[in-house]
Specification:
Structural class: alpha/beta
Number of domains: 1
Strand order of the largest sheet: 3-2-1-4-5-6-7-8
């Protein structure tokens, strides 16, 4: 694993991947590098205009790339269902649950969920459940990679207040949604192991990577000083989106990965080549994971 980079990605010819949030940041890089190695990649994007621009850029950077744009709004369960029903590819080998929002002011999804939990966890929970039969059919090598964050340490899901109805704090809500990603992965891995499935569920995080995540919240609230501060920190401290995508790409393609693995940068939560990442003990709590799973089924109406 030492020094692993995109040139180490095994040949992906014959494999099909879905990457959510593939129009920018680490999602764009993840999709592009999978396509560069021969995968057919479905670019699952919320904004059609930005998605089309990303597809055009990807084709320019990887001539002959086998990519297709498809609309997916994770904050709208009807969109999630429509995407899954409309997936026309013959097979699905890889699902990268990458899209996300960070530290937004309080907002709700179309279905009434707190936006960060709804987008980062519930939308992906529903999507994975709807696509899992396709992944099971793909044969050995199928994987579900869910992108979490080192900031999952900010807090775990409170079963008494899953959506932070009583006191919303944007960074705590973000941390809880990222803990939810890891709890989801933990329970999915347990279930796949119990059924003897060849599908592997694991997680990754980019460390501190320069993407538009850091500026979206301040821009939404018209806080230009906070937006400029985030941009300055990105330039001074963050690693590039190219490097931030490496843990996701390692989780998606490297041989020898195991159920419930979690990869991040070698310098924990910051930068470097992919390596096993520390994680909060609560993200391996069987009872908490099962409880979140049951709540997620109730909230989304998607049962596995």
């Amino acid at each position: 694993m030492n020094g692993w980079n995109a040139s180490d990605i095994p040949d992906q010819s014959g494999r099909t991947a879905v990457v959510t949030g593939a129009n920018s940041g680490i999602g764009f890089v993840t999709a592009r590098e999978l396509a560069r190695r021969g995968a057919r990649v479905v670019l699952a994007c919320r904004d059609a205009t930005r998605g089309e621009a990303a597809e055009e850029l990807m084709r320019a950077q990887v001539p002959g790339a086998d990519v297709r744009l498809a609309e997916l709004d994770l904050a709208d369960l009807s969109s999630v269902r429509a995407f899954a029903a409309g997936l026309k590819e013959d097979r699905l080998d890889l699902l990268v649950n990458n899209a996300g929002v960070m530290a937004l002011p309080h907002r709700r999804t179309v279905d009434g969920f707190e936006m960060q939990l709804g987008t980062n966890h519930l939308g992906h929970f529903a999507l994975t459940g709807l696509l899992l039969p396709r992944l099971r059919e793909a044969g050995p090598g199928a994987r579900v990679v869910t992108v979490s964050s080192g900031l999952h340490y900010l807090g775990t899901v409170d079963p008494r207040d899953v959506q932070m109805e009583h006191r919303y704090r944007r960074w705590t809500a973000y941390g809880r949604s990222k803990s939810a990603n890891l709890l989801f992965t933990h329970e999915l891995a347990r279930r796949l192991t119990a059924e003897g499935s060849h599908v592997v569920a694991l997680a990754a995080h980019p460390g501190y990577a320069a993407t538009n995540l850091q500026t979206a919240g301040p821009r939404m609230e018209d806080r230009p000083w906070a937006e400029r501060a985030a941009e300055l920190l990105n330039r001074l401290v963050a690693q590039s989106a190219e490097d931030g995508a490496l843990p996701s790409l390692y989780a998606a393609t490297a041989p020898g990965v195991r159920q419930d693995d979690f990869f991040g940068p070698r310098i924990p939560f910051w930068r470097g080549s992919p390596a096993p990442s520390p994680r909060a003990s609560w993200t391996r709590d069987d009872r908490a994971a099962a409880g979140l799973w049951a709540a997620s089924e109730r909230m989304t109406g998607v049962t596995y």
